[in-house]
Amino acid sequence: MTTAALQTVLTVPQRFRGPEGVANGGWIAGTMAEALNGGRSAVEVTLHAPSPLETELRLEHVANSVSLVHGDKLLVEAIPVAEDLEGPGFVPFTDAARAEAGFVGLKAHPFAECFACGLREPGDGLRIFPGPVEGANMVAAGWRVPFTVSGEDGVPASIIGAVLDCITGWAHFGPGETALLGRLALQIHGHVHPGGRYSVVARPTGRDGRKMFGQSAIYEMDGTLVAAARATWIAPR
Fold it and tell me: Using DSSP, how many helices (H) and how many strands (E) does the chain show?
């Protein structure tokens, strides 16, 4: 990134793709949260249009918001929200890892190249494979954090956003179902450490026509809340 006054140039590397040819929505949301306030207080990110890869985009800081723009087109907007986001409930790491066997994306995955939940090589993609938690209306996965996602200051907000994103969709999806992220509110409460093990948990919180709502979180091994999110997904017509 290079900064000039209140404008920043952002280029999304090919690695951080979600659906084919566009950026992972959670990665974008985390990047926007970092740009707005470091993600330490809650930020609501609305995705108006897909963000292209390997293209110079403008991050524009105006008053108390940040927008991502391509030419004259508004792609994404981030604003602060005055609340603390809570998690859906802790699932121990061993149980979360066991749930992965039920991940419906292993049988039919609409976005197999997705950085967060796709079937890419270990260390390249995050391989978050959420499956149903026995006895609960939740999905979970065990996240073994690859060193390949660490920056100078640890694991950045963009990666945390990606982790919190897709799992809220999989809390709803059955085989062959799909939707796109429309909005993600997220808050980072603590640090994620490369090489660490974390539980990633989500639950569906409602549905209204084409809109699906979900809540997700990352927990440490002892149940400490690391980050939380609230998502809105929009199914195709």
Answer: 3, 12
- Hey, what's the torsion of the CAs at 218, 17, 9, 74, to 10 degrees? -90
CATH number, domain containing residue 25: 3.10.129.10
Domain range enclosing 10: 2-80
Rounded CA gap, 184 and 53, in Å? 20
Q: Are 198 and 143 in contact, with CB atoms under 8 Å apart?
A: yes
pLDDT at 185 over 50: yes
Indicate whether 113 and 227 sit together in one domain.
yes
Could you give the percent of the chain with pLDDT greater than 70?
98
What's the whole-model pTM score?
A: 0.94
Cβ–Cβ < 8 Å for 131, 100: yes
* Total Cβ atoms within 10 A of residue 61: 15
Could you tell me if 52 and 11 are in contact, meaning their C-beta atoms sit under 8 angstroms apart? Answer: no
As a whole number of angstroms, the distance between CA 109 and CA 117 comes to 9
Domain count, the chain: 2
Q: What is the pLDDT of residues 71-129, one digit of tens each?
A: 999 999 999 999 899 999 999 999 999 999 999 999 889 899 999 999 999 889 999 99
Looking at residue 47, its amino acid is L
With a cut of 70, say whether residue 202 has pLDDT above it: yes
- For residue 87, count other CB atoms closer than 10 A to its CB: 22
State residue 62's pLDDT score.
85
